[in-house]
């Protein structure tokens, strides 16, 4: 393999730039050329493909977002779009791809390989940490720390005004962001999609705390929770506990930005090198990841279809620590 392409796709996450840098530097180290594909699959279809050199990856390791831009592409979901993407790669002589993204990105890469035989090795790039095949994803640590910083600040107000705050965090269908936010932020309750938490349970827990002279509370709500969004949950609880003063904060996209933490820069750097070396070893349709501190490659099909389970002990921990 003499020439590869690298792109970021799906939601951006802090550390993507560190991963791009690692892909560029590892390619140069191994004597292959590297092209940056802008705006993910969308740019691949349109031919937004540019040669990168060592200098293109200078001074980006500490930056949030992605210098290659990102997008969710409707065009690539169609056979015509993928044909155009393949033709673009052919024109640029690109023989392999490094995809930095999540399960949607890897689903696309799998289909593309079946149709056109272009091998892709993936780096887990999402704040959600919902990918099977790695203990942590690039951007997760930063997102959790950003959320925790906000939760600490909200606690000051909750405490000063005797309030109950419902704080909604991201994570799509997963509670991976919510759990450390609840434990690290000292929350009384965490609501995640993986387990059912009834409104009755929330009301009872808050009432019990109130009767024990607790005057402020934090409830962390994962955005995908079955009980509803933070506004809906807060309204139902407030109806049952009219003497309490409920407020809602939705942290939103603030969790996706910012300079990556040391842990994310380390992970991103390892993943970028592992992707390039994986391609050179002849890997295809696999995601690099770290499990128990060891580098592993997991077939895309597993990262897409298998669930990464939340350790139930963490939920127990929230209960114990909020007594
Ligand atoms: O996958 C990352 C993520 O931030 C999720 O946590 C969230 O549900 C989603 O992306 C939001 O996507 P968008 O930026 O397209 O609104």
From TrEMBL:
It is found in: Cytoplasm. Pfam families: PFK. Keywords: Allosteric enzyme, ATP-binding, Cytoplasm, Glycolysis, Kinase, Magnesium, Metal-binding, Nucleotide-binding, Transferase. ADP binds at residues 21-25, 155, 186-188, 212, 214-216. Belongs to the phosphofructokinase type A (PFKA) family. ATP-dependent PFK group I subfamily. Prokaryotic clade 'B1' sub-subfamily. NCBIfam families: PFKA_ATP (TIGR02482), PRK03202.1 (NF002872). Homotetramer. This is ATP-dependent 6-phosphofructokinase.
